[in-house]
Amino acid sequence: MHFGKVLVKHPKVPLGLAGSAALLYGLLLAGCAASGQKQGPADPPATSVMVLEVQPRDVPVFADFAAQTYARNTVEVRSRVGGYIERWLFEPGSEVQAGQVLYVLDLRPYEAAVQQAQGSLRQSQADLEFARRQVSLLQAQANLASGQANLVRAQQDYDRLRPLVQADAAAQQDLDAAVAARTANEANVSALKANVDQTGLSTRTQIDAMQGKVESLEAALRAAQLNLEYGTIRAPISGRIGDSLVPVGGLVSPNSAQPLTTIVPLDPIWVRFKVTEAAYLSWTRRGQKMLGGGLPLTLILADNSEFPWKGHIENSLNQVDPKTGTLELQARFPNPQRSVLPGQFGRVRVEVEERANAIVVPQRAVQQLQSMQTVYTVGPDNRVLARAVTTSDRVGELWVIEQGLQPGDRVVVEGQLKVRPGARVRPLPYRATPLEKPRTGN
Asked: Is residue 176 pLDDT above 80, yes or no?
């Protein structure tokens, strides 16, 4: 041994207690060295990880589409008459109801126009009433009656004198005068009859003309009253009103290019989004009802919060955009709290497929390394195994696994960064969060 050689080279060192201790220490070191060449290091303690035992289940597959909200029936408030704004009766950004007064113009010119139209109408109505009384016709008829009476008297004088003249009891001159008087009265009666006819026709024409004038003035009065009503500008629909673009004292005109303000209805709120031609054809082949409320939609807002009310597709455009290969769909969402405004951006989530017997794992369990996706599984001996997987659709916070896992595999969900393949672990059951549970379309 090496220690024996050392002792021989140092014969002057006594082999006392110290030497015995040194010899014993050397023997122990040699034994330990020999032992170390035959045994490896002890296994480290097992690391606790959260595992999920995967089982096939039916899950709905959702797709998200970029979307923007808009108001379908936005109204520009305009004045139907010209004038100066006298009062402004709303707060910008407030909710207004249909028929609510928004502006009041200077009404004095329109009030004067109404009074003028009323006066003209009254005068025409009086003339019509006079014409209807047929005073001229009655006078003509009275004259005719008088002429007819004179004719009768002249005929009577002729009838009385004729036998007397034949009996030489009266002068022929008297008979001739009676004949002349009878002829004159006959002509007068004929003239008076013609006058009656002409007066009747004139009276009827006058009545019709006055009736037309009265109706025209009634329409003029109604137009003046409408202009007076239009001088008070009311909300045509209910909704949220914008700012006034014309101040008090400003002049408005019915032909102005600039509106007074705008009103936007917020309940319901409309959403437009575009789907690819392939998605449209896929849905059509599967027989899914795109229109008529067949697909419940979820609106994801810009802050990734989920709008609490579901919407439905109401209609689509009539052709695919040849530049983008997409079709625009329009959906309606209830918005009772008026919290969503037109022009906001978000995403529409719609169920596109029902996957039967799919294997899903939480997204956090999948590790991405360049183009390879892997998961850690725990074998029967509680040792970690690395599995290459192929993912397809996302279901909420889950990945649908197409290849790489089998039912019953225990997948590490939490603690992957603390272990390596081949390490022994202590598996603990993992409880999925609400976001990691498959969503439903309800």
From this structure: no
